């Protein structure tokens, strides 16, 4: 394994993660250099930590930070865990580093109930994230580091070949908005995708498989699939995103990181945000925006 930026961080090192994005980046970068690393995870990060062999190894958040020299945390939306960790680190004069996954809502990630807690440094993993972070934070305190998770996934994705099935992988994610309508945005995007499907130029017998987000509860899309039973849509049961992409010729979704990953494999990628939704915030110029095809 190539050198990880985690290797040089002062110990004891507290790692605190909740949402999947930053958890994947951080936990895949630990490698075998786990000496002096205290891991506290909750939510989707729990499953990721167990899968990569670095499960939480302290009884609670406070124990992770007790006497720590450095805090490395995610910046997720689904809880206030990482925010609380940064607040505790500030109270205890612990150096704090926050990992910015994805490319959106950077300032808002550090505010809960009107209270902003910024880290001492930010880590990003590509040039798009670096440019976005520099719009909001002190450029001198932002570091671009390797994304071992993305590199690992890309190395595992099978290239498109004659044997690749005519399958479209739809990568789901919570929209966390109704966009002024009566249903969650992720379902509106699915409906829009189905409506526009005949215009995408795909073979008539293309399989469609939905891959739920790690934070989605089991069964969330069962009713929607049942209502579209005539289309033969199924849930993706692949063990990981690399396998799911490798078994597909096309990938679609709203603003998922998986869309960027699929682009790197050379696959056509469709953004399914409907015209009444906010503009897609992914900065990648090779994404095919379905609404622009109307």
Please explain how this structure is put together:
The protein is an alpha/beta fold and 294 residues long. The protein folds into two domains: 150 residues, Glycogen Phosphorylase B (Rossmann fold); 136 residues, Rossmann fold. Helix content is 29%, strand content 17%. The protein is built from ten helices and 14 strands. Strands 2-1-3-4-7-8 form a six-stranded parallel sheet, with helices on both faces. Strands 11-10-9-12-13-14 form a six-stranded parallel sheet, covered by helices on one side. A two-stranded antiparallel ribbon has the order 5-6. Helix 1 packs parallel to helix 2. It is globular, with a radius of gyration of 20 Å. The mean pLDDT is 96.
Descriptive tags:
6-stranded parallel sheet, 294 residues, 2 domains, alpha/beta, Rossmann fold, 10 helices
How is the topology of this model organized?
Blueprint: E1 13-17, H1 20-30, E2 37-41, H2 44-51, H3 61-65, E3 70-73, H4 81-91, E4 95-99, E5 111-112, E6 115-116, E7 121-124, H5 127-136, E8 142-144, H6 148-156, E9 167-171, H7 185-196, E10 207-211, H8 222-227, E11 234-235, H9 241-246, E12 250-253, H10 257-264, E13 269-271, E14 288-289
Parallel strand pairs: 1-2, 1-3, 3-4, 4-7, 7-8, 9-10, 9-12, 10-11, 12-13, 13-14
Antiparallel strand pairs: 5-6
């Amino acid at each position: 394994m190539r050198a990880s930026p985690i290797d040089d961080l002062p110990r004891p090192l507290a790692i605190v993660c909740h949402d999947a994005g930053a958890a994947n980046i951080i936990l895949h970068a630990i490698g075998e250099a786990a000496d002096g690393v205290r891991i506290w995870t909750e939510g989707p990060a729990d499953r990721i930590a167990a899968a990569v062999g670095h499960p939480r190894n302290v009884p609670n958040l406070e124990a992770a930070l007790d006497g720590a020299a450095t805090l490395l945390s995610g910046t997720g939306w689904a809880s206030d865990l990482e925010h609380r960790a940064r607040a505790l680190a500030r109270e205890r004069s612990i150096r704090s580093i926050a990992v910015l996954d994805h490319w959106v809502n950077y300032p808002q990630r550090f505010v809960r109930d009107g209270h902003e807690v910024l880290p001492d440094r930010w880590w990003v993993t590509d040039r798009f994230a670096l440019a976005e972070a520099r719009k909001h934070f002190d450029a001198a305190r932002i570091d671009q580091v390797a994304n071992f998770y993305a590199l690992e996934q890309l190395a595992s994705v099978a290239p498109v070949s004659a044997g690749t099935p005519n399958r479209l992988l739809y990568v789901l994610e919570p929209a966390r908005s109704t966009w002024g309508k009566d249903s969650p945005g992720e379902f509106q995007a699915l409906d829009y995708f189905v409506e526009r499907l005949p215009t995408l130029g795909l073979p008539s017998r293309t399989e469609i498989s939905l891959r739920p987000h790690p934070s989605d509860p089991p069964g969330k899309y069962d009713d929607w699939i049942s209502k579209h039973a005539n289309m033969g849509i199924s849930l993706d049961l692949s063990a990981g995103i690399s396998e799911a992409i490798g078994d597909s010729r096309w990938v679609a979704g709203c603003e998922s990181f998986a869309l960027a990953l699929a682009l790197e494999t050379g696959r056509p990628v469709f953004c399914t945000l409907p015209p009444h939704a906010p503009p897609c915030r992914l900065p990648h110029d090779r994404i095919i925006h379905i609404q622009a095809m109307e």
